[in-house]
Amino acid sequence: MRSFPFAIITTIAVGCAWLPASLAAAPSVDSVPAYVAAPDRPALVRVLFLGDSISLGYMPGVRARLEGRANVHQAGEDCRGTTLGLQRLDAWLGSGRWDLIHFNFGLHDVLRSPDGMQTSLTRYENNLREIVRRLKLTGAKLIFATTTPIPEGIVEGGSGDEVSYNEVARRVMKENGIPLDDLWEYIKPRQTRIQLRHDVHFEPYGYELLADMVAGSIYPFLPPPPGNQWDPSWAEVPDVPRFPRVLLIGDSISEGYTLLVRARLKGRANVHRPPQNCGSTLRGLERLDAWLGTGHWDVIHFNFGLHDMKYTNEGGYRVTLENGKQVSTLPQYEKNLREIVRRLQGTGAKLIFATTTPVPAGCFGFTENDEVRYNEVAARVMKENAIAVDDLWSFVKPRQASIQNLRDVHYSESGYEQIADIVATSIADNLR
Prior knowledge:
39% of the residues lie in helices and 11% in strands. It is α/β, with parallel strands linked by helices. Helix 9 packs across helix 16 (413-429). Residues 1-31 have low confidence and may be disordered.
């Protein structure tokens, strides 16, 4: 494991040695996923999170949502209150460059120490202003997260007091032109459903919702994605003139088996695919003419479904179900699929539709088994149009646990090999 680019401590400095009973004792660095520093990818921006144990809860989810867009780091410890922030800030910042810093201080200032003292509002404001001054010197884009609600029944008290501290923080951020990630406003109406009883922390689903919010606050400040990253399956291959031409249209599942299918049909067919993830039926309608080109196709093996049923926000990013909506409702999916079929039939090619493979439990942005509804619609459309069906769903389902990645729609190498066998066979049967 690569060492963290700045110091890590697991004990608290003098003056902040107490830890509220409602907050678990600081765990070791190796036991907290948020602390683990992944190696930077040079082309991506660097994002630093400074926050307490609430931020540690949503950090893994934020990392997942920003995968491929940013190198996400955490300070290596529970950053706690503004007093510790002043003491440890230089160590947290280290000597590297940060493009964006998402930070919060407040919860540990509000909760009372064993002697019954809070950080006073005046001291909190002074501390926060100094932290902001020093953060601005980094040149990074700054985002401040408001302190999440403190419920009743906390041993250290403070229920509702975070409102006053957030008011101070809002004023300081407004004066400094720093945008807010207003987690308090988002959580408050959902508090009883997603926050633990008599505890400042959250249910796992609550942390997922918070991760949506936090990642969403960062997206607008990231550079545009650099288009589709190159996948070997996109490479153009020269045709062998005497062989029929086959086009594979599909998402990342099909990208995973394209090269394998091409190898299995070597000497029998010229196998091509569009140089991109074909995504949802919406993208299909937009890009189909470009994918078909002007050449003749003998067989077109196609699938749409996974990207229609996923949940995204207004920016098009995958999110939890509560924070988004499906790309295509079932009626929209059916309408789009019928239009795609109509246009594909115009090519004169033999058409084969591949059913959408299973969505497992815990897959971010999807509902487990939701593909069943979409496959039922697709089966009806294909039957009405006399289109052959390559039933990948029925093949994968009884093998799902052994060949599909955990909480992921994608597959192991062995899984792709097996799926490629099925796809190649369905195509070969239609070349006769």
